[in-house]
Amino acid sequence: MKGIILAAGKGTRLYPLTLEKPKGLLQIGDETILDRLVSQFHECGIKDILIVVGYQKEIIMQHFGNSVRYSDYANFENTNNLHTLWSIREELNEDVLISFADLVLHKSIIKNLIDINYDISMVIDTSQVLESTMRVSITSDRIKNITTTSIKDADGNFIGIAKMNKNGCELLVKEMSSLIDGHYQDYYTIAVDNIARKGRQVNYFDVKNFLWREIDTKTEYDEVKSIYDKFES
User: What DSSP line would sit under 112-164, residue for residue?
Assistant: First the structure.
C-alpha cells in the first residue's frame, strides 16, 4: 500500500503564518502537521509515502530528506488538487491512501481505513455539517454526492483522507481525465462526485466518534494546538 499526501498548495488563508513555510510544517505540540501524518502512516505499516510538493518545496524536502518520496507539482499557483493528483496519476496503480496535508486526526482512523477493501472509500464525519469543509450526501451504504452537495442536502463532511484500491484508482483516473481540461480550482473529489452520480458504488467510513481537524484558518490552527493532547487519548 502507498500513502500519497497532497502538499503543493500555498495555504493563503493562514497568512502570514504560511508566508515563510508550507502549511504542513506548522507546529502542533512537539511535531509538525506533516510529521504527525507521516509518522502515523509509518506506524500503520505504510512505508512508501509520496508527498506532492509545490509551494516552498525545498523546505519540505529538506525537512524529510530521504525518508519519503517527492513529486514536484509546478502549477500550484493556478490550480487546486484535482490537477495536483492528476500530475501523479501514474502512481495510482495499487491500493493507496490519499490525504490532504493539513489534516490532524487520530491514528485509529488510518488503521481502520487500511482494513477497508472497497474500490473507493471516502472518510466522512456525520456528527455535524460544516460549511467550510466538503459536504457529502449519503444513503445507508454509499455516497450519493460529494463536493457539489448543498447544506440542506448534506449528511456530513469529507474530512480529507480516502482509500482507493487498484480498481478504484482506475475509476478515479478515468474520471479525472474527463475533467482535466478545466476545473482548475476544483478538488479531486469532483471526480469522485461524478463517479457516484453515475451510479458507481462509492463507499464511506464514518468517523463521527473519532477526533479530527482540518486546518485552513488561524482559528482552526489555534484550536488544534489547544486540544492537541486529546488526539492521543
Answer: HHHT--SSEEEEEE-S---SSS-EEEE-SSSEEEESS--TTT--EEEEEEEEE
Please tell me the distance from the alpha carbon of residue 17 to that of residue 22, in angstroms, as a whole number.
Answer: 9
7 vs 10, residue with greater confidence: 7
Q: Please state the pTM of the whole predicted model.
A: 0.95
d(CA 43, CA 51): 17
Using alpha carbons, select from 68, 66, 67, 61 the residue that is nearest to residue 25: 61
pLDDT above 90 coverage of the chain, percent: 87
Which phi and psi (to 5°) does residue 104 adopt?
A: -115, 120
Task: Give dist(CA 2, CA 99) in Å, integer.
Answer: 11
Neighbours of 183 (CB within 10 A): 18
Confidence band of 155 (pLDDT split at 50, 70, 90): very high
pLDDT confidence of residue 12: 81
Joined together, the cell numbers standing for residue 163 give: 482509500
Residue count of the chain = 233
Q: Estimate to the nearest angstrom the gap between the alpha carbon of 192 and the chain centroid.
A: 13
Mean pLDDT of the chain: 94
- Mean pLDDT in residue range 19-39: 93
Q: Match domain 2-227 to its CATH number in 3.30.70.20, 3.90.550.10, 3.40.50.10330, 3.30.1390.20.
A: 3.90.550.10
